[in-house]
TrEMBL record:
This is Fatty acid binding protein 1-B.1-like. One of its GO terms (molecular function) is lipid binding. It holds the Pfam family Lipocalin_7. Belongs to the calycin superfamily. Fatty-acid binding protein (FABP) family. Gene3D superfamilies: 2.40.128.20. InterPro entries: Calycin, Fatty_acid-bd, ILBP.
Length: 121
């Protein structure tokens, strides 16, 4: 099943606790907790481009499975990662529920942040 498409956040669990744990300032957590972000995923084999628009903030990350790349984290830091498969990056997993929804789960220790997004296009 292809990830390609545009998705809008439908629901999320654990947002505030997770964002506090990764060091996001309280004012940004408060602003972001009710925003329905839009994620656009372009998939071409092992190459991905992910554009996340949250209010006025746009974060774009491109990567190839199995190759080290620098991406922007949720806190705005640039970090180097190597994605080993389409569904796993250390504490990040993403999978299609069906053709119309994607679930992303981020885990940090015992904290879990889960996002469910519905396909727009």
């Amino acid at each position: 099943m292809s990830f390609s498409g545009k998705y809008q956040l439908e629901s999320q669990e654990g947002f505030v606790e997770f964002m506090k744990a990764i060091g996001l300032p309280d004012d940004l957590i408060e602003k972001g907790k009710d925003i329905k972000s839009v994620t656009e995923i372009e998939e071409n084999g092992d190459q991905f481009k992910v554009t996340i628009t949250t209010g006025a903030k746009v974060m774009i990350n491109s990567f190839t499975i199995g190759q080290e790349t620098e991406i922007e984290s949720l806190t705005g830091e640039k970090i180097k990662v190597t994605l080993r498969s389409q569904t796993c990056m250390h504490e990040f997993t993403s999978h299609c529920i069906d053709d119309n929804a994607v679930v992303c789960t981020l885990t940090l220790g015992s904290l879990v942040y889960k996002r469910i997004s519905k396909r727009l296009a």
